[in-house]
Every structure is written in C-alpha cells, then in structure tokens.
Design goal:
Elements (H helix, E strand, L loop, with lengths): L3 E5 H9 L18 H8 L7 E12 L2 E15 L2 E10 L11 H18 L3 E10 L5 E9 H34 L12 H13 L3 E5 L6 H14 L5 E6 L2 H16 L6 E3 L3 H4 L18 H15 L2 E2 L1 H11 L3 H9 L4 E5 L1 H4 L10 H5 L1 E5 L5 H8 L2 E4 L1 H7 L5 H18 L7 E4 L4 H19 L5 H19 L4 E8 L2 E8 L3 H8 L4 E6 L5 H7 L7 E4 L9 E6 L8 H19 L3 E5 L2 H14 L6 E4 L6 H9 L8 E6 L17 E5 L8 H12 L4 H18 L10 E6 L6 H6 L14
Parallel strand pairs: 1-3, 4-5, 7-17, 7-18, 8-11, 8-12, 9-10, 9-11, 12-17, 19-24, 20-22, 20-23, 21-22, 23-24
Antiparallel strand pairs: 2-3, 3-4, 5-6, 13-16, 14-15, 15-16
Length: 760
C-alpha cells in the first residue's frame, strides 16, 4: 500500500508563501485573522444553493509521492454557470490600505479551487477574497478567474517546495507511534486513584466526549492525564495534545511528565509557549524590523529554523526555543507559535485556547477535530475567562491627549471621547457607581471614531506609546461590546476627577463551551472541582458530560485538622488578630517543621506578621513573606528555601496567589498549613451584580458569586500539605464559618468532623 501524506491547505500556503519581516504595526498582513462571527455574518448573505464551511479533499501524485490535500472552504458559491471559491478574512486594517489579496490567502484558496475543478470537471473557476474590517464591518472583495490547468501547476510547485518538510513530519509520526506502542506507565505502579482517573481520560478521548474530573492533590494528576492521552495518539484516535494551564509551575510539571515518559522510550515532540513579553530578546517588545533584528526577515528564515529544531529536538522548552531562535535569527515567540501547530503536544497558558485576542487562530478544521484538550487546575479558568471577555477604559488619558501636541484629527477625537465620558459620568448621580445594561450609543461612537483616527497614526509610524496603548484599549473595548448580551453589564465608576467604564462578563460559560466544542475531546481536571453543579455550569458543561471524583488516597491519620471558631470578618479583624496569631503560633510549635500561613489579603497578612513578631522570640523562626509582584527569581528563591534541611521556616502568603496552588513541598519540606478565612472575594458592586445575575438564573447567587470561588481558594491552599502517602502534618482552619453545615459539606471528607479548638 502506497503511503499518503496529508497536508492542510492553510499549512501548505503558509509554508510556501510567507516571506519578509514581522511588522506588528496596525495595517500589516500579520493582523489579518479569521473571526468566527465575521465569517457567519458574511455567510448569512449567501444565496440559496450557495454552500458554507465546505470540507474539501483530494489526492494528488507529485514526483512519485502521494499527497492528500484537505481543508475547509469558507464559501462555495454558484452564480449561473460559474463557481466561485469565497475566502473570508477579518482584519483590523483600514480596507483602503488593502490593494491586493495576501499571497498566502490566495494560495490557500487556490488549493480549494483546484480540488473543486477536479471534482466537478471544470476548466476554470473564480476565486473571491472577502476582507472584513473587524470594527466597522465594512467589506471589500477581490475576484479573479483561474484555469484548472494553471491551478494544478501552482499546486504541484507548492507541494515540491513543501515535500521535504512533509516527509520529515511523516517520519517523525511513524517513530512516535512505534514508541507509544511499547510505552508503559512510567512509574512502578499506579497510585491509588491514578488508574481510575487515567481510565476516565482514555474513555473520554475514545468516545469523543468531555470530562470533568476532581482528582485530589498528590495522586499525580498530570501524568494520569497525559499518559492515556499519549496512548490515544499512538492509536490514531488523536493527532495532537494541548495541555492548558494557568501557572508557570504547572507547565513545568507537564514538561517533567513528558521528560519522564521520554526516559521510558517515548519519542514525541512538545513545545512550551511563553508569553511574548517574557521570551522577547529585546528590551521592549516592538515587533518591527527597524527595531528588532529577529523581526527583520523572520519569515525568510522561519522554515529552516522549524526544520532544524524538529529534526533535532523533542522537548522544546523555553531555553531550547531561545537557543534555536538565536541561531536562526527568528522571533522566539512567533517561532514557538508556529511549532505549536506541528508538534505532537503544546503546553501553554489558558490564553492560547480561550482568549479571543490571543488564541491560536490557525488551529481550525480537521486539526482541531483531532486534538485532545487537557485543562489543568480548571477551577482557575472561570475567573480567568471572565477577565478575557471583559474590558475597562478610563477617561484621564483621553483628556491628556486632547491637551497634547498631537495630530489635529486625533486630538479632536480624544476630546470627543473625554466629553462622552463626562456624559456617561452623569449616570452615577451622587453615587460612586452606576450599573447600565448597555453602552450608550454616543459613547461607543466617539470611541470608534477615536480608534479609527489612532489607527492612522499607528499605521503611519507617528504614534507614541500613549497613543498605541489607547488604540489597543479602545480596540479591546469595542470587541467586547460586540459580544454583549444579558451575561454582561456596564459599570461606570467615579474616581476623584477620573471616570472608568467597565464592560464585565459575569458568566463566561458559553464562551468556554464555544472554545472547546470542536476538539476531539476535552478534559477539565483539578483537585477542587466542587461543588460539581457550579463548576460544570461555569465551564460550559452539560449534564450529559462525563464526571468522575477520585477519592483521596490519604487517610485521616495523616492530617491533624484543627478548626478555630474565630471571626475573620473585616469588622472583627483588629479585635481577633492576637487570638488568630496565638492559634498560628501553637500550630507552628506543634508541627515542628516548616509552616505556611495563608491570608485572604496582603494587608491582613502584614498585620499578622507584625503581631507574630511580637509573640515569638526574635530569631526563633525564619520568616518568609510573600510580596506583591514578586519576580520569577524571587518566587523560586521563596520555594527553594523549603528544600534545605533543618530549616525552621514560617511563611506568610496570600490565598489564591502563586504559593497557594500548584507548588509541591513533600515530606519534611512542609509540616503545617494554616488557612485564615473562608476565601470570600471582596464585597464590591461587581460581585453583587454577579450575585443578582445568578439569582435570576435560578441559582443561589451568593454562593455562585462568593462562597464557591472562596472555598476553592481554601481547598487549594490546604492541599499544599499532604502530597505523598508518607506525608503527615497539621492543618489549621481559622474561621467560625468552617463549623457551619454549608462549609462542612464543601470540605473534603478527610477534613470534616474535626473538633473545634477554643481559646488558643
């Protein structure tokens, strides 16, 4: 049987026709991105008989090799006796600046046109490129007629250029699958609960489903999710894995899991995505050839860079990406993004899957339908997704710009935005806040006009950082406004002489659902997916989705849970701080080892630190104190302190922060944890509006807005303590609400039923 190499139309077009430099200024071809909503709006105007989202495929032999071309055409239009291929692209550029279609876009459409000619026996066909401005929704079309013969010649030439790379990928897949077939679980045995979780993941992938899994801290969730997913690749049930997570430390855990499997014979490629501003080689992230040597000519060198790293590396972590990017003088961020479509696995932040402004737009069609999505620490995704679909913008920068020496038209537009802010401020009356169901049309129109004027300045290279920042802030706000429905509200807030307008998404579940629906399978897992009905709803799940709750592998004898019924409510904190610190001091003394205390806020934590220093003798303990905006080096030093033997550390940290989730301090590295408070988010108009919204949806609004997000922070913080079957320690739960039936039901079974301790 002849081997057939599959190639997507988009990948073929990009590989062959991309050239030149990266130019992230507005108006560059790199800003041309597809948008689902825009596609649908254009397709609604198709005539009867026209087809949309048409899957096309065709085999072709070139120089003795057999290839299978495939892709999804936006539109297949029939006008009298002529057939038209319609390719739709959305762009933030002004349509006046687009005088010809992109060669990449034309080449992609040419593949579709050739397939249709072959299928229907046509001698000629039309290709129509439809560009849509993302904000104004204006449309511009280019149409041209091609012969079937010229299209075939073009396709054959493109394939000849692509063939060496295609053969490399094919050979890598063969080696990968052979290694997976002989791969065994990379530990001597499964921990309690691991086999059940791994089996649930495998079944979900096999049945193309969605799984919500609560898997307790310490069972080895990462390897339990990745191992069955890797096995599914070897059985051709999937073509790629995405490991999506919120924290750098959990990305490292995934890398370690792949490294462990590689030590056991796995031959599989993976790439870790790092945020652009972190991996950029320059002092400022300015993606223009005049400023950055790695942007200058990037696309002329990128194919060689990809071939090199794919031939020689399996785990493409940040240091590896940086090494090869410097070698080939390509942008490390764009390099890693390109690799993420080619490697067997991608590890990265939630943004690359769920954020509409950052998500990898090229993962579409058949590739997405054969990709498995694994979402780690999934409880974090709810608030992250709310932020992704919300936007805020303030008046002050527009006032400053209206008084500056800038372009007259831009200055006038900024003045109009400032005036619109003053008008919307009147909605507050004598109050600090005002809640609106929709954005006033005048305010939106003034912002849109400013956006258009700012675009001209940015495009011409005449914009400074202030204008660029305002441009992107306006763009984000206008995009969010486009998505507004009953799940959103507008908050107008007065701050002294300034005004802030926020469009806030209360319920991101539909967006999450839309982001995941095309994957082969999706697995959401965390130690704290509780209560299940809340988490499933907020993550876009349905009652028919799979669910599994893995019991804790640890017994109650491993953890000494002590509940202190002391009020931590804001109004009582000054009165109870001494009592709370006495409880902490007693726990630290009894634990006889390293101890972490988690507080709901930095201010509360700092008060406790001051009191703790008064109650203990100087020098008895080594104090570690989390600070706001710690660098990665400072975080690593903080955690590294626990790894030294015979340290007597008392660390103070914040619930929901970097040290309350994802960190692993097994054995004698950590002997005790105290959680002060029930983790409730701060009372504010935004949370209260969320409470009202969920109440109207038939849920307990207070629980959805406050209790459930808070208890997740508590469970994560307390989960730092027992990490292995041999760990023992003391857990202090300091708050009188932990004794109530509501919170007792929300606590893990091994934490429940503990006696409260009075008068520490």
């Amino acid at each position: 049987m002849t081997d057939i190499i599959s190639i997507s139309a988009r990948r073929l077009a990009e590989y062959v026709h991309r050239s030149g430099s990266i130019d992230a200024r507005i108006g560059s071809s790199t800003a041309l991105l597809e948008g689902t909503r825009i596609h649908q709006a254009v397709q609604k105007n198709y005539a009867e008989g026209d087809e949309k989202e048409v899957f096309l495929e065709r085999k072709i032999e070139v120089d003795g090799n057999h290839f299978h071309l495939e892709g999804r055409c936006d539109g297949l239009l029939r006008k009298q006796d002529q057939i038209i291929i319609d390719e739709i692209k959305s762009t933030s550029r002004s349509l006046q600046d687009i005088d010809a279609p992109s060669p990449v876009h034309l080449a992609q459409a040419a593949v579709y046109a050739w397939i249709v000619c072959e299928k229907e026996g046509l001698e000629k066909i039309d290709i129509q490129m439809t560009y849509v401005q993302t904000i104004t929704k204006e449309e511009q079309r280019f149409i041209q007629t091609y012969t079937a013969e010229s299209l075939r010649s073009q396709i054959e030439e493109m394939i000849r250029m692509y063939a060496p790379f295609a053969m490399l990928i094919k050979n890598l897949i063969v080696k990968r699958n052979e290694s997976i077939q002989s791969l065994t679980f990379p530990h001597a045995e499964f921990r309690q609960g691991q086999r059940k979780f791994a089996g649930a993941v495998y079944q979900t992938i096999n049945e193309k489903g969605k799984l919500f899994a609560q898997a307790p801290t310490g069972i080895g969730k990462t390897i339990s999710a990745l191992f069955p997913a890797v096995k599914s690749l070897g059985e051709a049930k999937a073509s790629q894995l995405i490991y999506s997570t919120a924290k750098t430390i959990t990305r490292t855990t995934a890398e370690e899991a792949f490294s462990l499997m590689a030590d056991h014979g796995l031959n599989m490629s993976s790439v870790t995505l790092t945020a652009k501003d972190k991996i950029c080689f320059q002092e400022k992230t300015i993606c223009q050839k005049e400023y950055c040597e790695f942007a200058d000519g990037h696309y002329d060198r990128i194919n060689a860079a990809i071939m090199d790293i794919m031939e020689n590396e399996q785990q493409m972590t940040r240091p590896v990406i940086e090494q090869y990017a410097k070698k080939h003088r390509v942008c490390p961020f764009e390099y890693s993004m390109d690799l993420s479509y080619l490697t067997d696995a991608m590890i990265g932040d939630y943004n690359y899957v769920f954020n509409p402004r950052v998500a990898r737009k090229r993962l579409a069609g058949e590739q997405k339908r054969s990709t498995v999505l694994l979402v780690d620490e999934a409880h974090n995704l709810v608030d992250r997704a709310r932020d992704m679909y919300s936007a805020a913008i303030q008046k002050a920068p527009f006032l400053a710009l209206s008084k500056s020496d800038t372009a007259p038209l831009l200055k006038k537009a900024a003045k109009n935005v400032n005036r619109a802010f003053l008008d919307i401020k009147k909605k507050c009356g004598e109050h600090q806040y005002a809640m609106l169901e929709e954005i006033p049309a005048e305010w939106k129109d003034s912002l849109l006009h400013f956006y258009e004027q700012a675009e001209e300045q940015v495009k011409n290279g005449a914009a400074d950082e202030i204008i660029i920042d305002l441009y992107f802030a306006a763009q984000r706000m206008l995009h969010v406004i486009e998505s507004m429905d009953e799940r959103f509200y507008v908050l107008v807030e007065k701050r002294s002489s300034d005004v802030i307008v926020k469009v806030i998404c209360m319920d991101p579940s539909l967006f999450i659902k839309e982001s995941t629906k095309s994957y082969r399978a999706s697995v959401f897992f965390s130690a704290t997916l509780a209560p299940v009905q809340y988490v499933r709803k907020m993550l876009g799940g349905e009652s028919t989705d799979y669910g599994v709750a893995i019991p804790s592998p640890f017994n109650k004898e491993q953890i000494d849970v002590r509940i202190y019924p002391i009020s931590t409510k804001y109004r009582d904190r000054n009165h109870t701080i001494k009592e709370i610190v006495r409880a902490i001091k007693q726990g630290v003394e009894d634990a006889e080892g390293n101890f972490i205390v988690f507080f709901p806020s930095y201010r509360y934590m700092q008060s406790a630190v001051a009191e703790f220093q008064l109650q203990v003798e100087p020098g008895r303990y080594e104090l570690l104190i989390q600070s706001i905006n710690m660098s990665e080096e400072e975080r690593e030093a903080f955690l590294h302190s626990f790894k030294h033997e015979q340290r007597n550390i008392v660390a103070f940290a914040v619930m929901g922060g970097v040290f309350s989730e994802g960190i692993d301090l097994p054995g004698n590295q950590l002997s005790g944890v105290a959680v002060v408070g029930v983790g409730l988010p701060q009372l504010n108009p935004e949370r209260d509006q969320m409470k009202k919204y969920f109440q109207q949806q038939g849920h307990n609004g207070y629980h959805y807005a406050y209790v459930y997000p808070g208890i997740n922070k508590v469970l994560q913080a307390g989960g730092r303590l027992i990490r292995t079957e041999t760990d023992h320690g003391i857990l202090l739960l300091i708050d009188d609400r932990f004794q109530t039936s509501l919170y007792q039901q929300l606590l893990p079974e091994e934490w429940r039923g503990q006696k409260s301790i009075q008068n520490p």
